[in-house]
Amino acid sequence: MAKKRKEPRDxxxxxxxxxxxxxxxxxxxxGYALAQHIKRQSNNLLRVEEGSLYPAxxxxxxxxxxxAEWGVSATGRRVRIYRLTPKGARHLEREVxxxxxxxxxxxxxxxxxxx
Length: 115
Prior knowledge:
The chain has four helices and three strands. By secondary structure, the chain is α+β, with helices and mostly antiparallel strands. The protein has a three-stranded antiparallel sheet. Helix 1 crosses helix 4.
């Protein structure tokens, strides 16, 4: 019997929020554009579903890490445009630093021939 290809795993907690904040650091975007940007930047390895993205955006809004205002998309639709706040920029910097340290530790443990 052929092995089934594994479905993509969920992101670790906080990964989606970190990617959203990093994306908004460069430019304000609406939700669909955020999801498309993450998909493109990851070479289509990451797909952000609406059911994950919009709750994450609501958490970021509630924490004051992003703010939203109504605007119009390139297609003329009314959309919420999300923008990084100064508090969000500081939070992003801390989260990326912690992630990089964790990744370094994991890389050291997984490195071949080190034990």
